[in-house]
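Hello,

Following up on my earlier ticket. Below are the two sequence lines again, exactly as submitted.
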Amino acid sequence: MLRQYIANGLVNGAFIALVALGFGLIYGGCRFFAFTYGACYTWAAYAQLILRNKLGAGVAFLGGVLGAVALGVILERTLFLPLRRRSEGVLASMVVSIGAYAVLQNLISLGFGEGVRSIRVRKVTEGFSFLEVHLAPAQIAIAIGSGLAIGVVLLALRFSMFGRKIRAVVSDPELAFVMGIDVNLLVLGMVALGSALGGLAAVLASYDLDLVPTMGFQVFLLAVTAAIVGGMRSFPGMILGGFVVGVFQQLAVLSFSAQWEDSAVFVMLVVFLLFKPEGLLGQREVANRL
Amino acid sequence: VTNYLLHVVILVGIYAILASSLDLLVGQTGLLSLSQAAFFGLGAYTTAILASRWGFSLFGSTAIGVGIAGVASLLVSLPSARLRDDYFALCTFGLQIVASSLFLNSVGVTGGALGLSGIPPLLETSSGREPRGREALLIAITCTLVVLLLERVSRSPFGRVLRSIREDEPFAQSLGKNTALSKMKVAMLSAALAALAGSLYARYATYIDPSLFAPSESIVILSMVVIGGLASTRGAFVGAAVVVGVPEVLRFVGLSGALAGNVRQILYGFLLIVTMFVRPSGLLGKYSLSRR
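Thanks for your patience. The regenerated structure is below:
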């Protein structure tokens, strides 16, 4: 029984690690908690829903990911870059992103209704069993898809020029600017890549879960929690954080009941913020504390 | 028609108390808190349970609700002492989500998703007449007292310490001010006022459910303060009037139900964005978030 929950937690964790990495790329560029990341996620899932009926699964997959990228890029250029240019603080940007999230989520509600939509395959499938652990095909797809995407992005961050520039901007934007990096362009690239990971996660998740207009908000909060737990300044840390949150969530389900799984995660978020705000793998950053 | 207008006035009054309670934190002290709906709910549930199960009076149930919220505010003062701007906001939002989940899932105490109904009203009806007029008077008196209290706080040395925390906390500390203690006090006062608004709401509506105290409501309350103007009590009242007025206008043009809920949220979100771009200090504000 425990083994099954841990296996579910690891699959869940791979998924959360993926959304946390996407969120972390956006945070690293923009430096505020962009609630709009949740909207990109929701829009990707619904873009896929529309395209799937008309053009098939393959196009829908791409369309979902690209939809998230397009939305992220548009928001960055119309809202967040102008705010940065006027050097408004983090709180102003965060409040704008909260407002934009409310608009985007409720547009989905207006278009598709508050109810549940689904593209899941209703047919019961065999799945895959190993060591008394059973995983459904959708879970395996999520685990493999998330794992591949995370691996590729981590390698790119480590070894490519784009990745080096990203790490330079994350660690010190002003120094990166002095060294001749076009910071605004690079931030746009980070937003695009981060949104793409969010869109990919949404598309993968919709093979396993129903679509609701509020789906992105919960995922946004899971991503933030994973990033805080692992460390806002460390990409490997965020991935570790994703697995920690995923397994912790399943263990909370096992020990209490499903209705408390979200509360358990947010208690963890609050505890980490208060007592270890730099996260498991992050370096202690004086600026975040008083 | 008079009754309907009075109803809107009463709602604006209650939400104005709630908005000005948040303004104490966001506007006066510069602490962006996203957990105000939780304290609103704490007051409302406490009053509802005490009044309907044990027959507490209006004054008694409100006083206990306010007291409980004041103690619970320590959960907000701890992060306020340790975290800066956006990390504080995130932490309070986490607390808000946990509180909402408690309201929703503690079915035995809060009635779960169905909420609590049959709460004793604000004022007993002696005859069959609707007591809206006297209720509106009661709310108006309470609002006046709250405004006087807030003006007094704002002018006092304590108010100046709060604003110095907002502008430059290390400087305030260097003058020997215990800023952590001041933040604890202001969080307590803010939570108490939010719970007062919650108690009045529960008694006025006689029915409450968790959706009134959901995380999205914390954002609605923040919109009131930001749109009306930070660090201004009049601003909080104007913000509350705008935010309470929008759904009534929507109903007037024939939009209702779930659709109106969505349109309402879109309008609030849009107003938040426009405010931050065009007039970051809000309609009547004396301070803007962009200075942080």
